[in-house]
Amino acid sequence: MSEAYASEARLETRRRRVLGMLGRQPLALLGGAVVATWVVVAVCAPLIAPHDPLDQSAPPLQGPGATYLFGTDELGRDVFSRVVWGARLSIPLAVLLVSLAVAVGGVLGAIAGYFGGVVDGIIMRATDLVFAFPAIILAMVVTAVLGPSVRNAVLALVIVSWPAYARVVRGLVLSVGQADYVTAARLLGAPARRALVRDVLPNLAGPVVVLATLDLGNAVLLLSGLSFLGLGAQPPRPEWGAGVAEGIQYFQFWWIGTFPGLAIFTVVLAFNFLGDSLRDILDPQSSGRERRGMQ
Amino acid sequence: MLTNLVPGDPAAANLGQRAIEDPAAVASFRERYGLDKSLPEQYAIYVWRLLHGDLGESQQSRLPVMTELGTFIPATAELALASIFLAAVIGISLGIVAAVRQNRVEDHLLRVVSLVGISAPTFWLGLVALYVFFFRLDWLPGTGRLDPQFAEPERKTGFFTIDSLLEGEWGTAWDAARHLILPATVLALYNVGLLTRYTRSAVLEVITQDYVRAARAKGIPEHRVILRHVFRAALPSVITVLGLAFANVMTGAVLVETIFSWPGIGQYAYRSATTLDLPAIMGVSLFVAVTYITVNFVVDVLYGVIDPRIRVT
């Protein structure tokens, strides 16, 4: 009981220390602020957007101005409102996508690392297979087969992105599983499950969090990329990638595509700022930046 | 490696087959493409034909997939090589600068630059580039590989720039090169970001070593120390990332070729995926897998060339 409390407290102080160091990194602060802003925009979209994102009553192809902040598209819809509503789609979907990838990859990776042998072989060959193809081509084929929709785009991207987590988790399970103290625990008669949960799991958190944060940016990029190709969100749904595709068709009217693209860019950049800073703190060697006294 | 990858193809075919059978359900169509046979049979036939250089026939154009790949691959290869060259020159230089000026202003600035590079959506950059340099400034051509007034050069390498130079058509070569600039640059930006980051950390790993200090102590000029002693040792890691850059270019090509109407493999992949043209999809997949394996192989060989310790005697 008291032992469990101690390890809990150790994790807690570690978490606090990471957050404290994150606060001293300007890029992390900036990234965090931008992500927070977008989350607020997504949550309060109906309050922020001045017009209905589907309403076609505005004069079409108006340049940006006072009434239509980002102008209007070829159907007379307010681009600003569509960008705001787009946040409601892209951000939760990215979070969902990464969570699913972490769950699937984590479980499969742990199984592969823990059991080894044939199971390990099968799972690792599956990751090889996915890695051999450019993500977007594989995702394109999967969505084309399942039919273009937001749900299928997410599904396709989970198929594309789980192997990264499987590999990381497998490697960690393997390396921690062979550590002397785990062997010692096993010799003392502790069940293997206990070793996995108590010794392996805490060591997984750091690398997986870094990977997931960086992957959030990637998820936004890939999802909007699929929608850009017409394989994700279907019109008239306000989606950023689809907005850029619209902008390509009417590229003389720069505002139609530029603003949705800018939205994608800022979100992805913010996630990358955060993820990169996190990596600096949790894994100083990999980035080659000076160590900042983490254990 | 190859044996690991090939089993992916029947799986991909398997997925698509159901979708095709369901709406179309045309028996003759199925017979024509052998879809009425059992899966193992289909796979055996496919592999057998593959061994004879036959990838089947596109369900969209009714042309052999091999012929189609032959026309689209050179266009993508020209674009991809131009883009990778650009990314390598810029990314590696920036990475070295960042490492040499570690934790100074330049380093912090380049960190942001490289993060911007990997964050900007390729398809959006394409739109902005098209608007600014083609529509507004009219400095560069917008879409396609050549202006219509130029005749396509006779096919030797499939690279318009090289083929027209071989024919002595300077005007055509210049126009083809100008058409390359925008798509190649847009395609390069992501890899510039990636290469900057990885070159930086590869150089940093080496730069603190004793032999580098020894070289400096001998009085060798700094730029020589960096290029001869440090960069050479960092090169294997950089080459690995260059291999990765190839995969990124294939991904980017789908988007960039769509935007710039570049008649390459990316556009072909997109067209076949959206029309569920299975033989074409499998042809593209196979091409991509083979490219991937070849690039990895070349990377492995290059390790040996760079580092004599790895060389197999």
* Structural class category of chain A: mainly alpha
Which regions of chain A have little confidence, pLDDT < 50, spanning 5+ residues?
287-295
* H/E series of chain A: HHHHHHHHHHHH
Major sheet attributes of chain B: none
Average pLDDT of chain A, rounded to a whole number, is 83
Put simply, the count of helices of chain A is: 12
DSSP strand count of chain B: 0
Q: Give the distance, in angstroms, between the N- and C-terminal Cα atoms of chain B.
A: 23 Å
Low-confidence region ranges of chain B: 1-26
The level of helicity of chain A is over 70%
Q: Determine the oligomeric state from the structure.
A: heterodimer
What does this protein structure show overall?
The complex is a heterodimer of chains A (295) and B (313). Chain A has 295 residues and is an all-alpha fold. Chain A is 76% helix and 0% strand. Chain A has helices at 2-23, 26-43, 45-48, 79-115, 117-131, 135-146, 150-177, 180-187, 192-228, 240-249, 255-282, 284-287. The two termini of chain A are 25 Å apart. Mean pLDDT of chain B is 82; it is low at 1-26. Chain B has helices spanning 2-5, 8-21, 27-32, 39-51, 65-100, 105-119, 122-136, 160-167, 170-207, 210-217, 222-259, 265-275, 278-306. Chain B starts with a helix and ends in a 7-residue tail after the last helix. Chain B is mainly α and 313 residues long. At the A-B interface, helix 5, helix 6, helix 9, helix 10 and helix 11 of A face helix 2, helix 6, helix 7, helix 9 and helix 11 of B.
